[in-house]
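task queued by scheduler; priority normal; single chain, no ligands, no partner chains; default sampling; output format set to structure tokens
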Amino acid sequence: MKRIPEIRDLSEDHHHGLVLARRARTAARAADRVEAAWADIRARFEVEIEPHFQIEDDLIGPPLRTLGEVALASRLATDHAALRACVTDGGNLERFAALLESHIRFEERELFEVVQDRFPQEALRAIGDACRQRPQRESRGQ
């Protein structure tokens, strides 16, 4: 879907997240790759995914609630908490991959539609500014 400039960076992050989910699924089928896969996921989570989540938690969740989109805001928070716990616990790679993919699909198909259609311009501007202020990543692991 075409995204407005203010959320385009977040949407582009999702491609990289889907690649990571696919890699996690592949690694889950090879016992000798599980530990290395978790190390890669934790590194990427800290540098790429957590900053993405912070922008959403701080700048998308509250305006959603203000707009009365409580179910979307709750799903956003619940998904983020589940993914953080999965990474912290080093649980099942398949579960992590499924959670990440489901979360990305939710954001692209539901959440971002509301954001770009209903958020006030000042909220969108804050999201765009926060995205531009994130440290640039040399490689996004494709």
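post-processing summary
- The chain has six helices and no strands.
- The chain has one domain: 5-133.
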